[in-house]
Amino acid sequence: MEVFEAIKTRRTIRAFTKKATEEQVRRLLLAGVQAPSGSNVQPWEFIIIDEPKTIEQIAEYKYQQTLKMDIDEAILKNPATIEQIHQQTLKTPLSPNRAAKQKKAYQNCAVIAVCNKKGHGIGRKPWMNVENIASVWMCIQNIALAATADGLGVQISILREEHQIAVEKLLNIPDDHELATMIMIGVPEIIPKQREFGTDRSEFNWLHRNRFRKD
Hints:
CATH topology: NADH Oxidase
CATH class: Alpha Beta
CATH architecture: 3-Layer(aba) Sandwich
């Protein structure tokens, strides 16, 4: 598949029928690490996870995170529910559908943790991390486009706050690295023709010249 076609047709895959093989994963990771990185730091590290119990635990963390997001969203939309949510347990979520779907996405696929090395370059402070983060995400984009070209699908599964910390501990990620995201790679169950969320902006309405335009 030609590169522009891969860019145009890439979609987030929500469910898989078959996991990518070890050979396919390694091929995609090699494509990923061709991404540029500031001062050629190459800040990425990858953990291939094939222990079912570990995958199940990570999927559960993602499930719990999404449930919390659903509740937060409901509170933001209706402040009157704050006390009601506070009083009830989280064992009966408001809307488990999205959370269950994201948890299911960890099935029938290769699961890889993508890690980012904190800090950047000689003489830089550990919190000066933006170059490494940008490099890691360019690496992930390479992987997603290469997977699309090979007829595979990718889902990016970001964990945040306490759920990210829990996964970092589970995977023994050292203190000088952090979890950037989980990626799942496999044969797509369905390839969406359109994006699932939002609408595409018209061509070049995001383009400015010399100054930001607020039209």
